[in-house]
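Long-time lurker, finally posting.

We've been working with Thymosin beta-4 (Armadillidium nasatum) and I want a structural starting point before designing mutants. I don't trust myself to interpret raw outputs, so I'm hoping someone here can both generate the C-alpha cells and explain anything notable. Sequence follows.
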Amino acid sequence: MSADTESSLKDLPKVDQSLKNQLEGFTPDKLKHADTSEKTVLPTKEDVETEKQQQAHLKAVEGFNPGGLRQTETKEKIVLPDKEDIQNEKTHQSILEGVATFDKSAMRHTETQEKVALPAKEDIQTEKTHQSIFQGVEGFDKSSMRHAETQEKVSLPAKEDIAQEKGQQALKKGIEGFDPANLKKTETQEKNPLPSKEVIEQEKAA
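Top reply, 14 upvotes:
Generated this for you. Predicted structure of Thymosin beta-4:
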C-alpha cells in the first residue's frame, strides 16, 4: 500500500466503536416483516372538472382557425413635444454646453486650511470629573466597608383586611353550600290596571 493511500485512510472520519459493533453484529433476521399496501388516490370532482376545462382549452387552441381573423393596419402616431418640453430641453442643452466649454483658467487658486478645534474649559472640567469618578471606582478599597445584615420584614395584614377576608370566605361557602330545596314556591300574578274615568275622558278629548 502506497504512502498516499495510507494518508488518505488516516484522514477519513472515525466511526464510533459502539456504532461499529452494532453494524457488524446486524443480521437480517432481526427485521420485522411488513406488508406493503398500495393506495390509489382517485381524483375529486373538482380535479376532474378542472382537467376537463384544461383539455377543452387545449383543443380550442389546437383547432383555432387563423382564417377567421380580420386584417388590420397599424397606424403610427408621432407625438410632437409641447412648448414646456422644448423649453426644458433647451435649458438642459445649455447647461451641458456650459459644463463642456467651461474655462478652468478663470478659476482662482485657493488653499485649504485645517482648523483643529480645541476643547472648551467646561469640556476639560467635565472630562476631569469623569476620570476622577472612574479612578475612584477602580481604586475603591472594599476593606473600608462595614458589614451589614439584611433584615426581612413581613407585613402582617391589618384587622380590617382579616375581617374582609373572613366575610368573603363565608359568602363563598354560603353560595357553594346553598340548598335550592329551601326555596319557597311562589306564584306570579299578572295585573293589568284598567284606566280610570279621568284617563278615559282625557283620551276621548284628545
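Before you design anything, note these points.
Residues 45-62 form the longest helix (18 residues).
The chain has a mean pLDDT of 82.
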